[in-house]
Amino acid sequence: MTKPTATASGLPYRRGTFSTLVEALDYAATGQCGLNFYGADAGLIASLPYATLRERAISLAGRLAAVYPRLSRIGLVAETSQDFVTAFMACQYAGLVPAPLTLPAAFGGKEAYEWQVSRMAQTADLAAVMAPEDLRAVLERALAALDIPVIALNGDDLPDAVVPTIANGVGDPAYIQFSSGSTSAPKGIYATQASVSANCHAIINEGLDIRPTDRGASWLPLYHDMGMVGFFMVPLYAQISVDYMSPTSFARRSMSWLKLISENRNTIIYSPSFGYELCARRYRGEELDLSCVRTAGIGGDMVRHEALEAFCNTFAPMGFDPATLLPSYGLAEVTLAVSFAPIGSGLRLDRVDTARMQTTGQAVPESPRSKSDQVRTFVSCGRPVPSLDVRIVDQDGQSLPDRQIGRIILKGPSVASGYFRADEDLIPLTDADGWLETGDLGYWLNGEMVITGRSKDLILWNGRNIWPQDIEWVAEHAGGKNISGAAAFEIQDTDGMTRIVLLAECWSRDEPTRQQLIRDITAATRAATGAPVSVELVGVRSLPMTSSGKLSRAAARARFLAGGYAGVGDAVADGPVAVAAPVRGA
User: Fold this and answer.
1) Is residue 421 domain-shared with residue 433, that is, in the same domain?
2) Residue 110, Cβ density class (10 Å: 0-12 exposed, 13-18 middle, ≥19 buried)
3) What pLDDT is recorded for position 583?
4) Using an 8 Å Cβ cutoff, are 387 and 559 in contact?
5) Which of 210, 318, 471, 489 could form an S-S bond across to 557 if both were Cys, CB 3.0 to 4.6 Å?
6) Is residue 151 a contact partner of residue 158, using CB atoms and an 8 Å limit?
7) Residue 572 CB coordination number (10 Å)
8) Residue 552 domain-assigned?
9) d(CA 136, CA 163)
10) 74 forms bridges with which residues in the sheet?
11) Any residues with CB less than 8 A from the CB of 108 and at least 6 apart, and which?
12) Degrees to nearest 5, angle at CA 180 with 78 and 455
């Protein structure tokens, strides 16, 4: 009978002191830990000790190296499976550069996925794509015009010939990470062994204080950094075991994640806010013991305190300690992590007067004079890891004091080397002085970072800054259970006037209810922002998401301007919630 790998490795513990992925696996393989794969019912499907992973990866590496020249880019469809992690590490041993590719969305046409994959393949100039058998036909159609071969993810259809390999060393690339965003011009982040090793070391030592007794549990997809780096590479560098569920399994039966944690006594878990919210919403009285959790991280998008408080209220009777909640901030360009809240501190909230924030650019605390509908609660994402230099600056690059909102810039050893595009030099991520413009806005609060949103999404209205999240939050609360999601953005009408548009996903088909929702949301958003908002009800799950499951306001705006929402207001999709883990942690 298959058993999961041990929690105790039996090795002298090394706290991420490795310079390459191969070096980390070579050491971890001498112990008892590894990776375990579970189904939607929390039943064990496969166990993969690090020793077995190393043996299989080296075997596959020799066959890959016999076909593809060193440093060739190999696309890997990143299903949550032992085949994917084996192929990923085989590329490391073969001196190849893996480029994890997203899986098709749970909802949406195959044509869109094929287009997305073809653009990624062109960007990375892939020599081949390795895919599971059930996606081979889809990938072959997507890549037919590019003459890129599709081979089995497990390598079964490679020739038997084996050649000696030269593994990726300290100065070599580690992988190409496609960030979420435009599928027509995907960004391939070129991560190096050095940047990966630096960030893994920072997470282990400066962020999560990972211990040899820890054990991870993850449903996060392996095609983005929270899953791939946070729950594959970091555990590898720390010699600890991980228990996986696929994102699809989590979407269908999210309580199985908590069942797995309860049974396997996992100590480190992570999710965007909506994952915790989904568990709280779907709890039906199952017996659980969550007292084992030492760190419950939150990342991937704006940290939403209401969702996390609902999780705490639901599962505190099952031993979950709210103090274990650990908000964080990061982005793929920095491999993964930028900042972590202090371990054991739980949520640290800051209630801000949004009316004054809009007019002054400062996060002014609420006061007795603040209107209740003009107060927003932010969550601190903690202090930057010491290995990174992080600044919050104004438009002139001058550092800002506490509570002054500005651009977040940073520099350090875990910043990736550039954006990769075929037949071009690496496009630098940083300026001449080494500073990376993150594209995020935030403010300092007693030395900790508070993220307020993306600079490109900021709405300028009559000299005031309005955050789309504020409009969306008000709409979702005003609409109650009838509104499942919202996207706010500004447009220019044909007369040149600026207008704020809110697309709200609506469950109700009843026309009087819908008209009342429009009136309620219009009034609530006007009261909260002081600006007129045009409310449009659209179908549930009609708002576009990035490949990492994050709302794309830019794509929603483009679709709206193109007339893509005409006549879709009554469309209501049925089925399970689609879940993915975003790239950007906040």
Assistant:
1) yes
2) middle
3) 35
4) no
5) 489
6) yes
7) 16
8) yes
9) 26
10) 98, 128
11) none
12) 160
Cα(189)–Cα(187) distance, rounded to whole angstroms? 6
Of 484, 540, 543, which Cα lies nearest the Cα of 281?
Answer: 484
What confidence tens digit (pLDDT) does each residue in 345-363 have?
A: 999 999 999 889 988 999 9
Q: What is the DSSP string of 466-481?
A: E-HHHHHHHHHHHHGG
CATH number, position 481: 3.30.300.30
Q: Does a structural domain hold residue 530?
A: yes
The total of other beta-carbon atoms located within 10 Å of residue 241's CB is 27
My answer on whether 408 and 366 are in the same domain is yes
Instruction: Quote the pLDDT of residue 118.
Output: 92
Q: H/E element holding 189? A: strand 188-192
Residues of the chain with confidence (pLDDT) below 70: 1, 105-109, 180-185, 462-463, 494-497, 546-549, 567-586
Q: Which residue has the tokens 């007067």?
A: 353
Q: How far is residue 576 from each of residues 36, 145, 541, 572, measured CA to CA in Å?
A: 25, 34, 11, 13
| Residues 124 and 73 sit within 8 Å (Cβ to Cβ) | yes
CA distances from 283 to 293, 295, 404 (A): 18, 21, 40
Residue 434 lies in a domain: yes
In angstroms, the CA 267 to CA 294 distance is 5
- Say how far apart CA 88 and CA 382 lie, in whole Å: 32
- CATH code, domain carrying 385: 2.30.38.10
Token pair listed for 453: 């949103």
Cα→Cα distances 262→42, 217, 266, 318, Å: 11, 10, 7, 10
* Under 8 Å between Cβ of 183 and 102: no
- 354 and 449 part of one domain: yes
DSSP E strand stretches across 294-417: 295-298, 325-330, 337-340, 349-353, 375-379, 383-384, 389-393, 406-411
| Domain-located, residue 403 | yes
Amino acid occupying residue 208: L
β-strands 383-384, 337-340: how paired?
Answer: antiparallel
Of 350, 293, 353, which is closest to residue 326 (Cα–Cα)?
293
Q: Give the per-residue pLDDT at 586.
A: 41
Are 572 and 541 within 8 A, CB to CB? Answer: no
CA distance 31 to 26: 10
Which residue, of 437, 456, 475, is where some domain finishes? Answer: 456
- CA–CA gap between residue 490 and residue 533 (Å, rounded): 9
pLDDT digits (tens, 9 = 90+) for 523-540: 988 887 888 999 999 999
pLDDT at 571: 39
Give the DSSP letter of residue 25.
Answer: H
- Lookup: tokens for 346: 């739980």
Whole-number pLDDT of residue 109? 60
**What does the pLDDT read at residue 564?**
84
Contacts of residue 300, defined as CB under 8 A and 6 or more positions apart, other chains included, come to: 226, 271, 272, 548, 550, 581, 582, 583, 584, 585, 586
Name the residue among 215, 219, 216 with its Cα closest to residue 227: 219
Pairing status of strand 375-379 against strand 389-393: unpaired
Spatial separation of the C-alpha atoms in residues 226 and 114, rounded to whole Å: 24
What pLDDT does 171 receive? 94
Non-local (6+) Cβ contacts of 306 within 8 A are none
Query: Is the same domain home to 446 and 386?
Result: yes
Q: How far apart are CA 42 and CA 19, in angstroms?
A: 35
Nearest to 35 by CA among 167, 159, 215: 215
Query: Of 456, 480, 508, which residue is a domain's last?
Result: 456
